[in-house]
Design a protein that fits this description.
Length: about 230
């Protein structure tokens, strides 16, 4: 699994320069709009927040615009640099900071040191997602909010992508995303998983960032999950 994680870091290193621009169109834009319209209203973006796996800092900036002081961390140095560059001229630049870390499975922060933790489309890449969740719970203060997004195990879009990947492998192709993305959840698994880490499910938002969003109810591509630390 370490090789898979290294590939994920390398993959995101290669994409860092244009990562933020992806949120201006296509499925990335639809996912960002979904976060703003469906997830952001249930959050309390005040105090100190951690963005674990911040990428180019796009979602960290959304939280900072709402008043939170956000510290973003990522394992890809080029992503951290991209996040710092994007924040440099941002109106909330004084509430944004970014740091390179080895892994979110070992967070370099004291217990209960954040009012909220955000981690979007990250757990699917790490070698031990449960350990990463345990660390997020550890650094959350009692009553603090957790926000994560995790792919749905039963996603039709993911199943079609996996089929396409198998066909590409036969012609020496493949999908760098699916090569690295390995952790998915079923809806019924989410609340028990959070409970094991001392968190209670607050809200669940099925998301289908395809062109028409038709699969959100029957076969969402991913779940946006909010929870509170007990």
């Amino acid at each position: 699994m370490t090789d898979t994680f290294d590939k994920a870091i390398s993959h995101h290193q290669d994409l860092a320069a244009g990562w933020d621009a992806r949120y201006q169109s296509g499925s990335f834009k639809r996912r960002a709009n979904f976060f703003r319209e469906s997830v952001r209203p249930v959050l309390e973006p005040n105090g100190r927040w951690l963005d674990a796996g911040c990428g180019s800092g796009y979602f960290a900036r959304i939280l900072a615009e709402s008043g939170a002081a956000v510290h973003g961390i990522d394992g890809a140095s080029d992503m951290v640099q991209a996040a710092r560059s994007a924040a440099r001229d941002h109106p909330a630049m004084d509430r944004l900071s970014f740091e390179l870390v080895e892994t979110i499975e070992r967070l370099p922060f004291e217990d209960a040191s954040f009012d909220g933790v955000l981690s979007l489309s990250v757990l699917e890449y790490v070698p031990d997602p449960q350990q990463a969740l345990a660390e997020m719970a550890r650094v959350l203060r009692p009553g603090g909010q957790l926000v994560v997004s995790i792919p749905n195990t039963g996603s039709l879009i993911r199943a079609l992508a996996a089929l396409r990947q198998r066909l590409r492998r036969q012609s020496a192709g493949g999908s760098a995303y699916l090569e690295s993305s390995h952790f998915t959840v079923r809806r019924a698994e989410i609340a028990p998983m959070l409970n094991r880490h001392g968190m209670a499910l607050q809200s669940l938002h099925p998301c289908d960032p395809s062109l028409y969003g038709l699969l959100a109810r029957i076969s969402p591509n991913l779940y946006f999950i909010t929870a509170r630390r007990a």
